[in-house]
Amino acid sequence: MSFDASGYHQPYGEFHTTLKEIMDGKREFEIREVGSSKSLNCYFKLDTFNYRETKSFYDFLHSDWEINLTCAVDFTLSNGEAQSQDSLHYINPNGSMNQYEQAILTVGQVLENYDTDNLIPAFGFGGIPLYSGSRSVSHCFHLNGNENPQCQGLPGLMEAYKFSLQNVQLYGPTYFAPCLKIFIDYVEQNVSQKLYHIFLILTDGIIHDMTETKELIAKASNLPISIIIIGVGDEDFSDMEELDGDDESQRVLDKNDPYAKPYRDIVQFVKFQDFKHQGKYALSEEVLREVPTQVLGYLDLLS
Description:
Layout: H1 19-23, E1 28-32, E2 39-45, H2 57-61, E3 66-74, H3 99-111, E4 119-125, E5 127-129, E6 141-142, E7 150-152, H4 153-167, E8 168-170, H5 177-189, E9 195-203, H6 210-220, E10 225-231, H7 238-244, E11 267-271, H8 282-287, H9 291-302
Parallel strand pairs: 3-4, 3-9, 9-10, 10-11
Antiparallel strand pairs: 1-2, 4-6, 4-7, 5-8
Helix pairs in contact: 3-4, 5-6
């Protein structure tokens, strides 16, 4: 460009090349007048050239990578007792689904299509698992009541949820970290395999272990993980929005450190109420909106 103090800079000249020509080793190009074949008797020299092919989410889906789905459900008392019509866990005698069931079904119908083994490990947190004989709150119990937390597909997951509703006493408080830690430990043990893991968490609001949860999410950001949080009900979800971390400044553990780098964004928060009446696919589309970018972000880390 020919510099002009007015800010209107005229092109000095131009040259034409192709990616193939550069990849074949050409590094020097003759500059000509713009729109003309007349040489300006000078050359553009390319000192270095780096080429990196970027994969698309389509490439990922058609590669030898597989996706695993894991689910965790909030059984704290703030949801309301399942026998109460005001409860988010209400068991309706007419068979209509409560908000948790609707959210599990809506999102699960999409995610299970990418879960290649059709086995979904499922956990509950914040309740007392009476089925085990326990009288103490557990912050990570198996939703199906079995030694193995895996459920057979979406029908098995829905059945496990109903089992826990009848065999778990709602309690509290709400802790994410225990289930997150078990999930992350499992992913780390299998990190050599080409498995990308999606952790679906359904909750009704504020958590009481925010600092530990953020530390675990930061740790998980270097692993093949996406975390999807569905907010059920209409309570305060400010904690969930902070965990979502679309703002890079929210993804720094020590905000007082000016050199702290934001960790990779792996969390997507969606409030169920906002999409409850927007059609069959609105919720699932919003839930999965960031997953392709998160998957490709992890593949970039590998490369």
